[in-house]
Model the fold of this input.
Amino acid sequence: MNKKILASQSPGKYHESVMVDEVIKSLHVEKGLRYIDCTAGNGGHMEAILKMGGQVLGIDLDPAMLAISQKRLEKFKGFKLVQGNFVNIDRIARNNNWFPVNGILFDLGVSNIHLKDLERGFSFENPEALLDMRLNPDTQNVKGSDLLNILREDQLEDLFSISLDPGAAKWITGRVLHSRMEKPIETVGDMLEICEGLRTGKPGMSVATLPFLALRIAVNSELINLKEVLPKAFDLLKKDGRLVIISFHSGEDKIVKDFYKEKAGIGEGRMITFAPIRAGITEVDLNRRARSAKMRIVQKL
Ligand SMILES: C[S@@+](CC[C@H](N)C(=O)[O-])C[C@H]1O[C@@H](n2cnc3c(N)ncnc32)[C@H](O)[C@@H]1O
Done:
């Protein structure tokens, strides 16, 4: 039912792209130059690049998102959309004859469209949904519920440590082990029960938010993919080309920061941002997701 509602609405209503002006400025978008958007989503950043006359190759893992961006961008020329994992950016760029490029963008994580979808297990608003969380069910075999049912205790603690402090990660691991002894964990509702009583030290935030985030990151290998793609993306840049990355939690931001420092340290890159760029108050007021966005830029020398 939810999908029907989504399909009948304009995509922009459901995912507001973050820091669009800042992205355009940071990428130095110019007419006729080439860019890659590794997280096309519903095409908001791509649209802004195209409006400035840039040409852009958009990649997204989720075929459902590509259908939305394709529709949004159909009036433009100068873009291609490719379904794939950005971890394969080298192969994707080569196959599409789209390298070297002037700038590459990552707007990490999932879209608001995912978070609002009541059927795919990203949202904790529908307890009956299967705890799935795969961005591409055609190529990924392991669902969120599978991880909770099969991982060892130490592996579960590592998984939850992505977003929780060690005490909370241990506590919730205990709850998972207890719950799965009674019956396999299957649904969003099962996970919500597991989260009940968790102390995150974040008043005002649902106790389910951080455990769900950690599970989603693990299901989609988000941190592993990010680590692996950064050197490949950097290699695809022209001299003076820029890598612009928007991250949403400290695990991602640390990987980005460390990579930029390494490139600057060996004289291959110049850090344009020492402190991350944050969204302005007006944007944060309009778009809650922008609150935690941090943008970092490095330029290839
Ligand atoms: C925050 S959204 C991007 C929104 C987009 N910038 C816009 O303006 O509409 C992140 C997108 O990245 C995609 N994604 C996440 N991990 C990916 C990966 N490893 N490879 C390709 N796409 C990925 C998600 O499916 C999602 O559509």
In short: The pocket of S-adenosylmethionine is lined by residues 15, 17, 39, 41-45, 59-62, 65, 85-87, 107, 109-111, 135, 220, 225 (CB under 6 Å). The beta strands are 34-37, 55-60, 79-83, 101-107, 237-247, 269-271, 294-300. Confidence is low (pLDDT under 50) at residues 1-13.
